[in-house]
Design a protein that fits this description.
Strand content: 25-35%
Number of helices: 10
Bound molecules: zinc ion
Order of helices and strands: EEEHEEEEEEHEEEHHEHEHEEHEHEHEHE
Structural class: alpha/beta
Number of strands: 20
Helix content: 10-25%
Radius of gyration: 20 Å
């Protein structure tokens, strides 16, 4: 087995370089994954452009990328060697497994969690990564490496829909028809939602969402949202005006889930929320979503391949990170082996 690999490092804000480094060592409970496909996420773009996200600051060179799939190339001493050769989708985190939150089943809230591409933990824009065996999920041959990689943002959608209590017959409003909005729309439909209304200012994005999960698409600058009386509102835009308008569309005792980021503080219609006893929560990543993601994709209820709009090699990570600036681009994929 090769002992050296190529990796794309964010050296500092706005500066990338491909370097050769040792293949990571596999701990007893881990597998070594040869990375096949990695989705570019808004957070990767943000680290590249700004060098930090909130409290997470890039202080030394960091490998970006946390949406990945690959093939198991080697296993640790506690892992069944028959796993070598399996095609897998990777859940890119390592919780401590034994704190108050982990023991309560909310390992996404573990204070000691290590998450790919979140300083100082390296991500997947490289040829090999390690992950605990239980977080490398075997995928059927019918699922592409691209779709398997995008089970990470799908997990965000699944977790948001679970927190929003989306189920059979639900009426759901989604703000923002970017990759996450379209994923949430498909997920809501897969969970049995009867109506999925999506809002976006861009007409091409509204059209795309209508083809992939949404039953109705509205322009928030023109169309009235108040009075829709939806069961749940999920914000995938991060725009304060979209959140404020979306809340006014929620029925009494309905739910609001804030997925989109970008603004730390803005005002909310408090008396409306009080008088209707509306539940509002954020979401932080996800817990136990990959089995659901694999079922949704392999059954065809959710189509992630339709989100792929750009393909790049490891020496083209900069182009991949900039791809989203072009209209019509949804998801760029990096192929570290190419
Ligand atoms: Zn992501
Ligand atoms: Zn923990």
């Amino acid at each position: 087995m090769t002992t050296q690999m190529k990796a794309s490092f964010l050296k500092k804000q706005g500066e990338l370089a491909v370097e050769t480094i040792p293949v990571p060592e596999v701990r007893a409970d881990e597998v070594l994954v040869r990375v096949e496909a990695v989705g570019v996420c808004g957070s990767d773009v943000h680290y590249y452009a700004h060098g930090k996200i909130g409290p997470y600051v890039v202080e030394k060179p960091l490998i970006l990328g946390h949406e990945l799939s690959g093939v198991i190339a080697a296993v640790g001493s506690d892992v069944n060697p028959s796993r070598v050769g399996q095609r897998v989708a990777v859940e890119p985190q390592r919780p401590c497994g034994d704190c108050f939150q982990c023991n309560a089943g909310r390992y996404n809230l573990c204070p000691d969690i290590e998450f790919y591409a979140t300083p100082p933990i390296d991500g997947a824009f490289c040829e090999y990564v390690t992950i605990q065996s239980k977080f490398a999920f075997e995928i059927p041959d019918s699922v592409s490496f691209e779709a398997a990689a995008l089970m990470e943002p799908l997990s965000v959608g699944i977790w948001a829909c679970e927190r929003a209590e989306v189920g059979k017959g639900s009426r759901v409003l989604i703000a923002g028809a970017g990759p996450i909005g379209v994923i949430v729309a498909q997920t809501a439909r897969a969970l049995g939602a009867a109506e999925v209304i999506i809002t976006d200012v861009a007409e091409d994005r509204r059209e795309f969402a209508l083809q992939h999960g949404a039953t109705q698409a509205l322009d928030p600058r023109v169309d009235e949202l108040a009075g829709l009386e939806v069961d749940a509102f999920i914000d995938a835009s991060g725009a304060p005006a979209a959140v404020q308008g979306g809340i006014l569309a929620v029925r009494p005792a309905g739910r609001v889930i804030l997925v989109g980021g970008g603004h730390d503080e803005y005002s909310l219609p408090i008396s409306f929320i009080q008088n209707r006893e509306i539940w509002i929560s954020g979401v932080f990543r996800y817990t136990n979503t990959w089995p659901t993601a694999i079922e949704m994709v392999s059954s065809g209820k959710v189509d992630l391949d339709i989100l792929v709009t750009g393909k790049f090699g490891l020496d083209e990570v900069e182009e991949a990170l900039n791809a989203g600036k072009t209209a019509g681009q949804l998801k760029a994929i990096v192929y570290p082996g190419k």
